[in-house]
Amino acid sequence: MDVIRKQGYLNTIISTVGMVIGYLNTVLVLPYFLADPDKVGLTRFLIAVSPVFAQFAALGFTNTSARYFPYFRDRDKQHNGFLFLMLTIPMLGFAVVTVLFLLLKPAVFDLYRVTSPLAVEYYYYIIPLSFFTLLFLLLDAYLRSLYKTIVQTFLQDFLVRILTMATAALFYWGFVDFQQFVILFIAANSCTAFICIIYLLWLRQFFVRPGRNMFQIVPIKEVVQYGLYAFLGNISGTIITFTDTAMIMAYNGLSDVAYYTTGYFITSAILVPYRSMNKILSPQVADLFKQQNFTALGKLYKNMTRVNLLIGLLLFLGIWCNVDNIFTLMPKEYSAGRYVILFMGIARIFELATGLNAMILVTSHKYRYDLILNILMVALVIVTNYLLIPPYGISGAAFASMLVFILINVFRVAFVGYFFKMQPFGWNSLLLLLIGGVAYLASWMLPQLPNLFLDIAVRSILITAVYGGFAIGLKVSPELNNGIQKTLLRFGLAKQG
Fold this sequence. Notes:
With 497 residues, the chain is mainly α. It folds into 2 domains: 2-425, no CATH class; 426-497, no CATH class. The protein has 21 helices and no strands. It has helices at 2-33, 37-58, 61-72, 82-103, 105-112, 117-121, 126-145, 150-172, 178-203, 214-217, 220-252, 254-267, 272-291, 294-320, 323-328, 338-353, 357-363, 367-420, 427-445, 452-473, 478-490. Helix 2 (37-58) runs antiparallel to helix 11, helix 3 runs parallel beside helix 7 and helix 16 (338-353) crosses helix 18. The chain is globular, with a radius of gyration of 23 Å. InterPro entries: Poly_Biosynth_Transport, Polysacc_synth. Keywords: Cell membrane, Membrane, Transmembrane, Transmembrane helix. It holds the Pfam family Polysacc_synt. It is found in: Cell membrane. It is a multi-pass membrane protein.
């Protein structure tokens, strides 16, 4: 737990700083520096497509690492060729997916030529970006299996966003044209894979030779079968984001993609603690399953849910109560994403409130059930988007995604409860929601202050004071109260006992 807590805190700090830079890019830098919403939409389209491409090529091997690496782990034997196995099959998958991608070109061109001509023009740029996205995903999964998460978090959440800001500035100041900007943008998102290789070499863990016994430790049929199931399950979350983007682009064009993905990204701050902790929790959950220690797993399930909901709900309140202030900072047309923030914010909170359910299902021998749920999720997103985007635009897409996320997570909680007799909820979960309601009411009663930045500061402080005060006073999270107590003891502001 100490390893989880230490790396979780560091990941959260890095991700939070990166989130601030990401907000600057999303709210100010890209909308103003690129000026044209279609150009902003293109960058979001590239970032939405490349993970889908990479996940299809990976064939689920990013999840295979978490489940099977504990059986291969042996540094003296170079982990029995695990990294070789993990890289080789996805690279073959990438070659196959690339061929299919090229064969689909005529259909894609016909679909987007009128509404999104920039997407057609930069179609081939998706291939190199997807390759390096795949390589990073595989190396990240391997490093997480080694309980190394800090460097990848720094690269993905901080460095890429700084480089994105720099490339946008070069375009704005006229040092590069738009095509050169796109090349630099792809390079900024690709450099993470090279740095991960250098990091593994420094750790002396870059073992790319095949192992003599790598097919005997775990039957290769089982590994591949699990990888395929995990691939079909893991791809769903990526496909949902891609489906929203692709369908909005087909109906309304890249400008609406810019507005939708801006609102979508703004709510991603809510998941910062959740994603930071999950980077180290995945191998921990795999180890607990290997040990058959379901008591510890159930405790971890409930504790992490409580911590993530505590922080995530505060972040959601900070965003939604300041939503008018956020859009005041942006070009006027971006306010079309207002209800995207509301609906996706609610979806994020529900995801936090249901905890590690997906990770537990995917890591367990019941992973096939998560596959079924993920296939259902993708189908529902396509159908609901088809019904809601034409009449309601990007707000309809967000509402559709919210409904689907809530429904699927209800099923996941039910499955985990049925199969493993554990669930993430406690009375403190309900109490946190009530405290959140009180903090929202306090913000609603505060009149709009004349100065924008003063209003943001005062409103945020008020929400934090009310929410934090009740959370500490009612002791809804032992982790929070214990952390405060330890901090006070460290600085001599409290007495032991």
